Amino acid sequence: MLFRRLRHTVATSLAVVLSLAPIAAERPSSASSSATEAHFIDALMAKMTLEEKLGQMSQVSWKDTSPALRDGLVTTGQLGSFLFVTDPSEINRLQHLAVEKSRLHIPLLFGFDVIHGFRTIYPIPLALASSWDPALVEHAQSMAAREASAVGIRWTFAPMVDIARDPRWGRIMEGAGEDPVLGSRMAEAQVRGFQGASLSAPTSILASVKHFAGYGAAAGGRDYDQADISDEQLYNVYLPPFHAAANAGAATFMSAYMDLNGVPATGNRFLLHDTLRNDWGFRGFVVSDWGAVHSLITHGFAANPADAAARAVAAGIDMEMTSHDFRDTLAASVQSGRVPIADIDRAVRAILEAKYNLGLFTNPYTDPNLATTELLSPSQRHEARIAAQRSAVLLRNQAHTLPLSKTLHTLAVIGPLADSQPDTMGSWSLGGHPADAVTVLAGLRNKLGATTQIRFAKGVEIERGQPSIFDPQFPEPTPTLLTPEQRAAAFQQAIDTINQSDAAILVLGEAHNMSGERASRTSLALPGQQQQLLEAAVATGKPITLVLLNGRPLDITWASTHVPAILEAWYPGTEGGNAIADLLVGDATPGGHLPITWPRNVGQVPSFYNHTLSQVPNDRDAMYWDASSAPLYPFGYGLSYASIAITNLQISPSELRADGTLQATVTLRNTSPIDGDQTVQLYTHQRAGSATRPVRELKAFQRLHLAAGETRSITLTLRPQDLAFWSPETRKYGLEPGIFDLWVGDASTASAHAVFTLLP
Ligand code: NOJ
From the CB of residue 15, how many other CB atoms can be counted at a distance below 10 Å? Predict the structure, then answer.
């Protein structure tokens, strides 16, 4: 499935565009060995002034700097990297300045937030994680890398691998949810997808694993708020996806904004030096988050810009994003002896190595014609559609409400998100164009328009608040200032439309700017009058399907018992409407599963499946006086149009040696006449040890396709190291022999159970 077309070298076509003089005499051949690389970088660094070294450690935002400033910084060698420039001719122009006009001809590195696609927008990362399909996610990010590299962007600020257990936090949409094992598989897959088999391939881009570390534990779900995480939770829950990404060869990391246990992540030597470099052997470079070096003053940590820069470098930051304390103060700090030149050299070397590995010293430009063929190509649209199909989660389907019949006479498509292009793409779609996006209404018209009369009514508006500063290309709809009478008429028109139709699809959820950065919410309710619209729609008695577009679990407790069918589509991206139409009529079968526990309401937050237990729950399974403790939908949950049972669990051996493996085998039986997918999930629990272990922990999973009527057996393998954990008692990471429970099933509530012993 993966394909990578070698892009032709751009030197020939560029010769026409730019008159290329020879660059540095020492420019290496592209087939250089690491010894040649070391020699090349040694020789280059020997020529660099301190100011030029600090330039490599500086990154500015293109859109927030004047042309005179940025051109001046580039030609004088005071800048190593830009973010937020996407026009290939401007990228080539700036690169030309760096490569031809600066003293040492060092190429620039262009970075951008390619989070879920560049121009072709793929489903948001939380959705991609819902696919439980690392190969799909790897492929999606390789497609994103293809587009980004076509315009000259060779570095993405992704993957975001922050574990998140609090849906109030807006950035939960940007990660893989709450589980360290699923999160680790998604982290590795994304690194492989972005970086490809070799960074020197012109379609490869550097990954930047963020936000190191603990950002997802922001107090109260408030973005940027402090994170207080015990060592046990840090080592067993929050750090594993970062470690997995480092092991997968991630070239760069990004430090987080917030305080971790009282020390800002950007000045945190324990994280950046002791853990990342010493313990994990990371040899790439670390960029600060936007302005995070200067923010060390805001934290009440650094006294002034010089202190902030010196302490960020001492902690392990190599490149400063957008603030300029490195450029302004580090030369004096090196001269005064406060900052060792060895620390500067380490940072500069890592940055130059990354540029070298990308082939930028030999091939600094992009072919301006590539954008025309690569961006939004038919294969991009095709892959984005498949990704959106595989990311959707069917939450409810009473009495086979779905799939819809393709011979309906009339279908009502209702709701404020049904025909909204920005809301189909979701937040962090900075390179996307809303006009490219296929909405649910458009997708259904494409699919059924010839045979079914499709009628659309918005019904209600969502009050969107201020335009999001993070999605500047989105034309925000002007706030609707409808009178109460106009609102009532719009509402009634939607209900009339449903009454006149054979069935209705309600597309509800959140506007795209309600989740993402700086978009936390104190409520999980459907915003505005959407709940009332949903209740009135159900009261018509027509078959109603709720399609959700959103970046976090929402309070759909009423819908979960009253609306016959609920499809969670998240923000599905450019091809989202076509993919949802495929799913609604059964041309594709939903097979996604939740990467996060779905709470009943905001009062249950945080709610996560891998918690510990101190009391056996009472009959009502409730630790609250006024509500159940159980979530609305458990982690790992998801339905299909097919019925695929998982039975007959057998494990072997029942005594696992530290050098052995355990095989858990189950039978999958598709008892329905519909082809579909099932995701087999294996959970364990250690009954006793030096520290309490969670009631269940995901250890292995696999998504499989079964034809109608097919029966198949499948084996998941458990390795002893999968059972290792960091104990707060022994303060060590390792295995503790003992008795384990094991479950296999299609959610974290799996009931097929076995017991095994881990031998000493
Ligand atoms: C701030 C965000 O926290 C980070 O994730 C992003 O990569 C940078 N801004 C650059 O846009």
Answer: 11
Query: Is position 289 annotated as part of the catalytic site?
Result: yes
In this predicted structure, the answer to whether residue 474 has a pLDDT above a threshold of 70 is: no
Judge whether 338 lies within some domain.
Answer: no
**pLDDT, average across residues 317-334:** 98
User: Residue 716 is part of a domain; what is its CATH number?
Assistant: 2.60.40.10
* Sheet-wide strand order for 109-112: 155-156, 109-112, 81-83, 58-61, 320-321
The predicted model gives 266-278 an average pLDDT of: 98
Please check the confidence at residue 186 and state whether its pLDDT lies above 60: yes
Task: Domain of residue 406: give its range.
Answer: 381-588
CA 122-504-640 angle, to 5 degrees, is 55
* Tokens linked to 747: 């959610």
Residues 390 and 538 in one domain: yes
**Mean pLDDT across the stretch 69-76?**
98
Distance 321 CA to ligand 1 centre (A): 9
Ligand 1 atom with the shortest distance to the CA of 160:
5
- Looking at the 3D structure of the chain, how many domains does it have? 3
Shared-domain flag, residues 583 and 699: no
The CATH number covering residue 423 comes to 3.40.50.1700
Last residue of a domain, one of 571, 588, 605: 588
Atom of ligand 1 nearest to the CA of 84: 11
Active-site residue identified among 133, 162, 166, 289: 289
pTM, whole model, 2 decimals? 0.95
CA-nearest residue for atom 11, ligand 1, is 113
Residue with the smallest CA separation from ligand 1 atom 8 is 290
Residues with CB under 6 A from ligand 1: 83, 113, 157, 210, 289-290, 517
State the pLDDT at residue 78: 98
Residue pair 550/515 in contact by the 8 Å Cβ criterion = yes
Say yes or no to pLDDT of 32 above 70: no
- For residue 587 the two structure tokens come to 């041309």
Domain boundary among 526, 558, 588: 588
Amino acid 473: pLDDT = 52
- In this structure, the residue with its CA closest to atom 9 of ligand 1 is 290
